[in-house]
Amino acid sequence: METKEIKSISKAAIRRMPLYLSLVKQQIAMGEKTLSSTFIAEKLNTEAIQVRKDLAATGVVGQPRLGFCSEELAAAIERLLGWDNLQEAFLIGAGNLGSALIGYEPFIENGLNIVAAFDNDSDKIGTEIRGVKVLSIDRLENLIGRMHIKLAILTVPVEVAQQTAERLVSDGIEAIWNFTPTKIIVPDEVIVERTDLAAGYAQISSRLATKAQRKAAENG
Amino acid sequence: METKEIKSISKAAIRRMPLYLSLVKQQIAMGEKTLSSTFIAEKLNTEAIQVRKDLAATGVVGQPRLGFCSEELAAAIERLLGWDNLQEAFLIGAGNLGSALIGYEPFIENGLNIVAAFDNDSDKIGTEIRGVKVLSIDRLENLIGRMHIKLAILTVPVEVAQQTAERLVSDGIEAIWNFTPTKIIVPDEVIVERTDLAAGYAQISSRLATKAQRKAAENG
DNA sequence: TAGATTGTTAATCGATTAACAATC
DNA sequence: TAGATTGTTAATCGATTAACAATC
């Protein structure tokens, strides 16, 4: 098989990959050997051209008239995302949101393995959340190195987000997934991804507000 | 006061507003009357020009040498986002993630009021989650109209996401905040915002995978 | 005044969409 | 073959960044 040029891939395309992957897996489960960009676009309420462009980045070559081989596509997306390997992670902050992430199905299904949670609340330390032990935050330093943990999921209160991030960095963490509603500042070599629930709320409430204002203007 | 032209505002800018708002509120709490785009940019690890451009959309006019009036800016951002009014919402699906959203501080602080949760698990129905009653999903139809609820937060299992969304739409919901890892298809007039935890995971794990591959190539 | 900052207009960058030849 | 689909190249669109005059 010829090796294809490495295609550049947009951040937005990466973010869409999980949608493609779960649809492809669904089709595999139903015994479908192939699926086309047209089909995917229809199911995801998007455009076929975007699907084709995105899938080009996986290196999978489609067949005119038939589309893409389901199995090949699933494997290629998983490889692209690194979801073909198990990813061990520490959860930092075992509050409501953190606890919810332990046991979040789409993570478990795709190789994200939260191996321990850390907190400074003595009531929580020593307990288990769905089988994951909650340890004292003081043991973080020791364990990151010893267990070769690359990824930390940061769900501490916003007030301590920056200082906790700095601790993680000095302990040698490679990537921080920041769920706190603030930006953390860390050295460039540390990978940071922020998932911002407040941003989503901003977007939906501003759209609702705009709609309400328009309605008021029409009736006024 | 002159009314300014309504500036167009990008989706990305809307999503950044909560970051600006919390920083501005922090400054107010510290007694600072003004703050500049330079200051904001430094704190948020971004560029001053982007901050100025974003803030222009609020209609607040800054003063050369001084920057923006903190109080005025906070009020303008809250108005822009509709966070100056209480937003009542139903939570659909009282699982782990849904439960975590009840009581999520940044929502509560900014006017998002989850007034009831709905589930079809008889073990959950009748219980309370941090003061919010869990009701049978069968009562949804009746209550959306009666309580004039505009916003539904969808945290049901992915398998029932589409059918639940359709129910919400036929009951007259105006906006759906979709936390399920799938796209839901609804009429255009219904506002849909999707917060996709799997997308964030895709992004961070692909970056980790790329880094690991580069490292392997160097050592190989 | 000198200098820091705002706000506008233009340039750049990145992502999406359109057009269309190639393929089976 | 006819027709659906792929994949590439070009055009468009939207967001970010740069340049710079205006302001206090």
TrEMBL record, chains A, B:
The keyword Lipid metabolism does not apply. GO terms for biological process: negative regulation of DNA-templated transcription; response to redox state. Residues 82-183 form the CoA-binding domain. Pfam families: CoA_binding, Put_DNA-bind_N. Its main location: cytoplasm. InterPro entries: CoA-bd, NAD(P)-bd_dom_sf, Rex_DNA-bd_C_dom, Tscrpt_rep_Rex, WH-like_DNA-bd_sf, WH_DNA-bd_sf. GO terms for molecular function: DNA binding; DNA-binding transcription factor activity. It is found in: Cytoplasm. Belongs to the transcriptional regulatory Rex family. Modulates transcription in response to changes in cellular NADH/NAD(+) redox state. Homodimer. This is Redox-sensing transcriptional repressor Rex. It comes from Limihaloglobus sulfuriphilus. The gene is rex_2.
